[in-house]
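Action item from last week, closing it out:
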Amino acid sequence: MAHFVRSLAALLLGACLVLADGTHAAARGTRLSKAERAVLDKALSEKRFGDLRKELRLLALKVARRPKAAQEAFAALRADYLAKRTAWLRAAVAERFLPVARELITARARDKKSTASASLTWVRSQLGEHVARRIADALKASEKLTTAAVLEAWKQRKRGAWRTFEFPTGGQSQIVATRQLWWSTARENQRVDRLFQALLLDTKLLDLGKRNPKVPCKACRGTGVEEYFVRRGKEHTRTCRRCGGTAHAPATRYR
């Protein structure tokens, strides 16, 4: 009898061990190996997102032959890696978009061969693509991006703090009536402001906030007049060319 009990206990113990080994094996089957995770983690840490997406595609083919639980676990892991890639892309684009846009606008304003109409049309219809192409080129070491992907990342970016833009009110009637005459005589910073105004008002690339017409003009410090010197250091004053003498520059917030 005692022998029978010992034999039965041994059989039960063996069955439990087999069941435990099967459970552990199944659990291992739902996880990626250390080597597989290491490849993904290295690509992520080095911001090689093109390689990361390639490795995820290859692993998806392998996991497709594994149990359903393994496929579900991999799908969750893949979503986590891609979410980190998306967060990086949106942050990288958000950091670069406005500086690149202003750089391109400044270069356009410096172009003596450009006309007012052509420059404004360029801002309204082409600037976004040019900015996206420049950013895609800057990020190509991490991933080959299309301009559409860059623009979508900019659209989905995390919004930063509001900034203030003062509209170039001085000479606005000249801009409308004799635009090219104004463009040919305007200073570089005036042309930059005019093109940036077109970016704000005539495209949907930036968010616009509430307008505030009470912002003091920076050029004349809210006085409506600006001082200048002629020969022999003689000081003169004239109506501020930026605010037109109103002392305030109509402004808007953007981000």
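Closing note: The chain has ten helices and five strands.
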